[in-house]
Design a protein that fits this description.
Helices cover 25% and strands 15% of the residues. The protein has six helices and eleven strands. The protein is globular and about 55 Å long.
């Protein structure tokens, strides 16, 4: 990876183009996964350093030469109209496919399959804020995920855990409160419990949170899970089913296709 100091006017999209990455999502995800917690960014902040991936798998393919478009200058008006109709039809099919996919993802507890439970040292983000606080579990002191020693950092987060660390202005400034001197401080006020908890798993009658859980703020912000806080642990079946390209973003030094081949015929657990 390499470092780049963010300039005024830079966006994830413009930086992705500048460094020839496949898309802005790869850049944002890569930086937030590899940087210290205090450097996690929702939007590029001028003067701060952003981590740029250099893995060839994350670099965009060569763009076709614009001159190739001249091959089609002799195309008839009728043909052009037909192509436009086909394009519109394809876009409609893509849209319908995405809607069906989203509906499937949101069906009950099935949406939580393969997701990680959230622990106290997990990090959250607000789409209207600039800071990224950790959880402060207050609903219980009973259950810990993947920690036999009972360390506080591993306390299971439930739908009733609405406090963060730090408690005051947990998300820094609020984009919904612009002023002449800049954005005003966050006045976090949750509207009820967390939404989309895993209702099949409860601690003292309270449903646990996973990576897809959400919380709304009365100011208008939407709070989601940025990091669940656990060490990633996956079994053989999950490795085989996982998407190579996605895993390559999280583990740029690992040849994931080769990794899949190496575990063939084993039943061990693997850590990423």
């Amino acid at each position: 990876m390499k470092n780049y100091i963010i300039q005024q006017g830079d966006t994830f999209s413009s930086l992705a183009r500048q460094f020839k990455l496949k898309n802005e999502g790869i850049l944002k995800t890569y930086h937030n996964l590899h940087c210290p917690p205090e450097d996690i960014m929702q939007q590029p902040i001028p003067g701060k350093t952003i981590l740029i991936p250099e893995d060839p798998l994350l670099i965009a393919d060569e763009v076709n030469n614009i001159s190739d478009d001249h091959r089609y200058q002799g195309q008839t008006e009728a043909s052009s109209g037909t192509n436009m109709q086909r394009h519109e039809q394809l876009e409609k099919e893509k849209s319908n496919s995405k809607k069906l996919h989203d509906q499937e993802q949101n069906k009950g507890s099935d949406a939580h399959e393969g997701k990680y439970f959230v622990i106290q040292k997990g990090i959250v983000q607000c789409n209207q804020g600039f800071a990224f606080p950790k959880f402060k579990v207050t609903s219980h002191q009973k259950h810990y995920w993947n920690d036999a020693d009972g360390q506080e950092d591993y306390l299971a987060v439930t739908e009733d855990d609405l406090q963060f660390d730090p408690e005051a202005r947990p998300f820094g400034q609020c984009k919904l409160k612009p002023s002449a001197g800049g954005y005003l401080p966050c006045t976090y006020a949750p509207t009820g419990k967390w939404q989309k908890p895993y209702e099949k798993v409860k601690v003292m009658g309270k449903s646990c949170l996973t990576e897809i859980s959400e919380l709304m703020c009365s100011t208008g912000g939407k709070i989601t899970i940025l990091k669940h806080g656990q060490q990633s642990e996956i079994g053989k079946n999950q490795v085989v089913k996982s998407h190579t390209h996605e895993q390559q973003i999280y583990n740029p030094l690992v040849d994931f296709d080769e990794f899949k081949e190496n575990i063939h015929g084993t039943d061990e657990l693997y850590y990423t």
